[in-house]
């Protein structure tokens, strides 16, 4: 029988409702019986003890808030009776001890990957088309129309709708009710069009709104992000369109590429429109060079690679009150398994590490790494406060509605994605991963800004947990979606790959679900499983301009 309530950590003084609890009910947890004093929806919390104003609220074993008013045992914890509060953190001298999980089952497992000249191994093989400035976005659309369909890269499972039916019914005098009830979704099936380059997974067009008009720092950061994508293990080469007068100059891009790969040798074509005779000539040259690049990319074939070559990004979005109980800790266990196998994982979203800074600082492998984490966290927090915001304003209305009522509650659950391994490096956006183990990457909590940064840092696969449902993905890193609850997994089955709601129901443990997630990662890396986000063409790309984004 599924339990109805849960205390996450022995030190907690709040209890999570796993089921609807109604006023007057009595629920039991171990030997304690609680009289529920008001209706408490699933995922929300109630007081384990009586609180007075100023008392500390503990969840996940850390401070997540303070009581504003008296709260009686059995009463709901809400935005009206507590406010955000988190523990202070400082550098402490101590040696973190980690007991890795057993990984003998995967010790000799390999995946078929794409080897690059710099030693990285990709799980996919993409060609990129990049505008250095937003002025070139329209030219990218023209190139997409010219290349994608002709080369066989139309996604077979993208949604198709028959608007012609609506037009015909409207002309025939159909009512609004008739139009709203008319079926217009078309069956897709598998595309019968032959893919011209079977070893190239696709051409990705990274449109954006930057490159000029902002600060020079924005231009430098954008070029660094693009360099991360061009040198990415899942990328075979790129076509870059430049206008010629923008802040994000091609010289900055080359400089950033050389920082990441001094011996860079992938095919790279940079074209400047202001040096061309006409737009037609410019686009013709770009299309021809892209086609030639694709012929080169098609020569790369998959070869066996150890799991230590995997770089996995960790992300959450549309989180709910179950995210930190099921999906996030299951991803954390998968992350620990990968680290034990010699792989790299990246935990991002610094606003969602608020309240667990001390734990992560204590897990850093050396003082310099810990100091950098503290410096970046405090600088980010200070910038947010300077513009009248703060980490306490991070939870979205959807988060709050589903039980994540303070940033510390949200963060304590979000951090579970990072598992328990030592922190080997702290990266500022968009620095690349160079070490095996757990890396922390400074990004906003915004889903797409963060996943864009994860790929820019080198993540070859992204794990994305969600409790409310978030239809997003990444242009170069296949993104696996993990639902925190079974209801979501069933309702939005078209975007969810893995259901971690079975942890809530007791059908799975954190460990068994983490192992399942690792198996999905391996199948994805092999090219044997295409995540739903890939099938649906969810190729989101939003650069962070380093302003305050939570």
Tell me the layout of helices and strands.
Elements lengths: L4 E2 L7 E4 L8 E4 L2 E4 L9 E3 L8 E4 L2 E6 L14 E2 L26 E6 L5 E2 L3 E6 L5 H11 L15 H9 L4 H6 L20 E4 L10 H15 L4 E8 L7 H11 L7 E5 L6 H19 L5 E4 L4 E6 L10 H14 L3 E4 L9 H6 L4 H20 L10 H5 L5 H8 L8 E5 L9 E5 L5 H10 L4 E6 L12 E5 L2 H6 L6 E2 L1 H5 L4 H17 L5 H4 L15
Parallel strand pairs: 11-12, 11-13, 13-14, 16-17, 16-20, 17-19, 18-19, 20-21, 21-22
Antiparallel strand pairs: 1-2, 2-5, 3-4, 6-7, 7-8, 9-10, 9-15
The N- to C-terminal Cα distance equals 39 Å
Name the average pLDDT.
93
How would you sum up the major sheet?
Answer: 7 strands, parallel
The shape is globular
**What percent of the residues sit in helical stretches (DSSP H or I)?**
25-40%
- Radius of gyration, rounded? 25 Å
Proportion in β-strands: 15-25%
Number of strands: 22
Specify the structural class: alpha/beta
Number of helices: 16
What can you tell me about this protein's structure?
It is globular and about 80 Å long. It has a 7-stranded parallel sheet with strand order 18-19-17-16-20-21-22, with helices on both faces. It has helices spanning 137-147, 163-171, 176-181, 216-230, 250-260, 279-297, 327-340, 357-362, 367-386, 397-401, 407-414, 447-456, 486-491, 501-505, 510-526, 532-535; strands at residues 5-6, 14-17, 26-29, 32-35, 45-47, 56-59, 62-67, 82-83, 110-115, 121-122, 126-131, 202-205, 235-242, 268-272, 303-306, 311-316, 344-347, 423-427, 437-441, 461-466, 479-483, 498-499. The protein is α/β, with parallel strands linked by helices and 550 residues long.
């Amino acid at each position: 029988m599924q339990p109805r309530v849960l205390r996450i950590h022995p030190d907690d003084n709040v209890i999570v409702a796993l089921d609807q609890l109604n006023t007057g009910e009595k629920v039991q947890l171990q030997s304690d019986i609680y009289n529920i004093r008001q209706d408490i929806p699933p995922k929300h919390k109630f007081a384990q003890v009586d609180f007075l104003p100023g008392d500390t609220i503990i969840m996940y074993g850390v401070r997540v808030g303070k009581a504003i008013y008296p709260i009686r045992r059995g009463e709901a914890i809400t935005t009206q009776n507590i406010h955000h509060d988190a523990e202070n953190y400082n550098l402490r001298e101590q040696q973190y001890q980690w007991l890795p999980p057993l990984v003998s089952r995967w010790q000799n497992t390999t995946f078929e990957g794409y080897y690059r000249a710099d030693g990285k191994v990709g799980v996919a093989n993409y060609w990129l088309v990049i505008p250095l400035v937003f002025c070139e976005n329209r030219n990218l659309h023209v190139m997409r129309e010219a290349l994608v369909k002709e080369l066989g890269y139309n996604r077979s499972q993208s949604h198709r709708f028959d608007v012609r039916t609506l037009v015909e019914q409207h002309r025939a005098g159909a009512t609004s009710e008739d139009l709203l009830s008319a079926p217009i979704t078309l069956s897709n099936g598998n595309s019968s069009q032959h893919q011209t380059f079977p070893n190239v997974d696709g051409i990705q067009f990274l449109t954006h709104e930057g490159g000029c008009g902002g600060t020079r720092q924005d231009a430098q950061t954008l070029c660094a992000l693009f360099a991360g994508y061009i040198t990415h293990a899942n990328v075979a080469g790129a076509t870059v369109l430049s206008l010629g007068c923008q802040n994000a100059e091609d010289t900055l891009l080359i400089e950033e590429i050389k920082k990441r790969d001094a011996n860079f040798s992938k095919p790279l074509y940079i074209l400047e429109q202001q040096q061309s005779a006409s737009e037609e000539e410019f686009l013709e040259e770009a299309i021809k060079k892209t086609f030639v690049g694709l012929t080169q990319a098609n020569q790369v074939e998959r070869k066996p690679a150890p799991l230590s070559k995997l770089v996995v990004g960790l992300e959450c979005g549309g989180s709910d009150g179950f995210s930190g109980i099921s999906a996030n800790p299951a991803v954390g266990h998968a992350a620990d398994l990968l680290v034990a196998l010699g792989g790299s994982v990246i935990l991002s979203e610094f606003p969602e590490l608020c309240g667990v800074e001390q734990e992560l600082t204590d897990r850093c492998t050396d003082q310099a790494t810990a100091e950098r984490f503290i410096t970046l966290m405090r600088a980010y927090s200070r910038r947010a406060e300077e513009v009248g915001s703060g980490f306490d304003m991070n939870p979205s209305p959807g988060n709050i509605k589903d039980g994540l009522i303070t940033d510390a509650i949200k963060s304590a659950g979000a951090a579970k994605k990072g598992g328990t391994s030592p922190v080997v490096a702290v990266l500022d956006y968009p620095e690349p991963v160079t070490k095996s183990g757990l890396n922390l990457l400074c990004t906003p909590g915004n889903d797409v800004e963060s996943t864009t940064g994860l790929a820019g840092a080198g993540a070859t696969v992204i794990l994305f947990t969600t409790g409310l449902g978030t239809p997003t993905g990444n242009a170069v890193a296949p993104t696996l979606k993990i639902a925190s609850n079974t209801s979501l997994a069933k309702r939005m089955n078209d975007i969810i790959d893995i259901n971690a709601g079975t942890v809530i129901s007791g059908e799975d443990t954190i460990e068994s679900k983490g192992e399942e997630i690792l198996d999905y990662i391996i199948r994805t890396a092999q090219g044997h499983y295409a995540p739903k986000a890939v099938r649906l063409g969810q190729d989101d790309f939003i650069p962070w301009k380093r302003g305050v984004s939570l």
